[in-house]
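hi support,

uploading two proteins for the ticket. first:
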Amino acid sequence: MLIDTAKITVRGGHGGAGISKKPKGPDGGNGGNGGDVYIKGSSNINLLNQFSQKDLFVAGNGFMGARNNKTGKRGSDIEILLPVGTSVYDKKTGELIVEISNVGERILICNGGRGGCGGLTSEKGMRGEEKKLKLSLRLIADFGLIGLPNAGKSSLLNEITNAQAKIANYPFTTLEPNLGVFEGKCLADIPGLIEGASGGKGLGIAFLKHIEKVEILLHCISCETQNALKDYQTVRKELSEYKFELTKKPEIVILTKTDLADPSCVMKLTKGLNKVNKKIIPVSIHNYQSLEKLRKVVSNI
C-alpha cells in the first residue's frame, strides 16, 4: 500500500563534552560536534511506508574530548531517503521547509549540537537541533490517467507500459496510484474520481493532489457510459473545485473499451466530446492499432 503522508521527528546529535585540564597535567580537548540529519531524494515512491514502523530519527552524538588537546570524534550523520515529489513541512507552523524535486538531491534538515570546550574548564556539549515534520508526497509524472471509476485506466496502463496494476470489472479496484514507464515517459494511474471527490467523497482529495505535478492529463471515458459528456464534466468539475489550475493542464480524452460498442456508437460519442475537447482517441486494449496510435501520441509529446 502506498503511504503518501507521514509525521516524523528528526534530531541532530548531542555535542560531546569538553574535558578540563588537570593540575600539572596536559590540556583537555574540546568535545566533538553532534551529527547532522540530511534528507535525500529517491525514485522509490514507497519510501514513506518506512515511517509506519519508525517515526524518530536521531543522528549520532559527539564524543568527549581527550587529553593533549585532542578533540572528540564527531557524531555520525544520518540520511533519510524520501521520494521525489515529497513536500516537507514544519508540523507545528505548517510552513513549507523544502520540496524534494530531484533524485540524489541532498538537503541538511537538522544541525548537530556543538561540542563543549575543554581546557582550564570543561563545558557540556549542546543539544542537537530538533524538528517535527509533516511529509506529503505528490507524484511526479509526465502523464496522468484520470476518469471515473471503472473507466479502464489500469488496463490501459498495463498495456502501454507493461505495469502490473490490479484490474477488475468493478469500481474502486485501484486504491492507490500505479506507475508505469513507456519510452522514458512516466504514466500515473490515478484512482477513480466521483462527484464530490474534491470534498472528500469516495477516495476524495487524497488522490486529487497527485494530479498537481502531472504534466498532461489522459482523461479516460468508457464507451459503456450512458452520457459521455456528463462523465467528462463530472471529472472536470472536481478538478476545478479542488484546484482550478488543474483544468489548465493539457488534456487528451481517451474513449476506452471501444470493443464493447459498435462503430456508430463510438463515432457518436466522439462527436459529442468534440464539443469540449478536440483531442479524442478511441482505444481498446484488444485492438493493437488503436494502442499503437496512443503509444505514438505518448512518445511524441
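and the second one:
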Amino acid sequence: MLMFWPTWAGALPWLLAAAIATWLISVSKRNVTIVDTLWSLLFLLAAWRYASTTPGTGPREILLLVMVGLWSMRLALYLAWRNFGHAEDARYAAIRRRNSPGFAFKSVYLVFALQAVLAWIISLPLAGAMLGQDLRLGVLDYLGASLWAIGLGFEAIGDWQLARFKANPANQGQVMDRGLWRYTRHPNYFGDCCVWWGFYCVALAAGAWWSIPGPALMTLLLLRYSGVMLLEKHIGKRRPGYADYIRRTNAFFPGLPRER
C-alpha cells in the first residue's frame, strides 16, 4: 500500500505531458475536439506506467493491460474517425465562445489539463490492480473481465449501429431508436460504465477496494456532466421526435421500451 501512492502520483506528470502535447496540436488546428481521442489513450498511458513500476508481469497485469488496451484503442480510433474533417464539436465551440478572447491559451487548463487530472483520478483501479498483493486470478477477476466484455460490446455495437444510421441520408434529422438504441438512449455510455466497473472488480480482486472513487467518478461524469445530461440538453431542438423517444426509452440502463 505504501508504494501505491508515489506510483499513482508519478503517473500524473505523464498524463499532463500527453495533454499539453495534444493541446499544441489543437492550437495549430484551432479545434480542441482532438481531446476526445486523447481521453481513452490517457488511461492506456496510465496503465503502462503502473505496470512498468512492478518487478514482474503477472497474469492480472497482462489481463488488465489487454482490457485497457482494447477498450482504449477502439474508442480512440472510432472517435478519430468520427471527428476527422469536421468542425469543432458544439460542446467545445460553446466553451470557446464563453472564454474568448484568449481561448487558445485557456484551453490548456480548461480542457486538456482538466481531462488529464480526471483521467488520473479515474485510473485509481488500474493502479490498484497492478500493485495489489494477491497476484492470482480469481472469481472477481473473471467477473470483471465479463463485465468489461459486456460493456465493450455495448459500446462497439452501439457506435457501429449509430454510424450506419447516420450514414443513410434518409435518416437525417431522425431519431436513432433501433438495435441497442431501442432499449437505452445511450448504449455507449452504459457500456463505458460497465467497462469501468469491470476494471474495479479486477482491482477488488487485488485488494484495492479503496479505488472505488475511480469508477464512481466515471459514472457520475457519464450520467450528470459530460455524458447523458450534456448530450440531451439541446438534442431535442435538433430532433423533434426526441421527446417521444425519451418518454418510451430508458436513459441509461437497458430495458424494454414503454408503449407509445
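thanks. also noticed: The chain has a mean pLDDT of 91.
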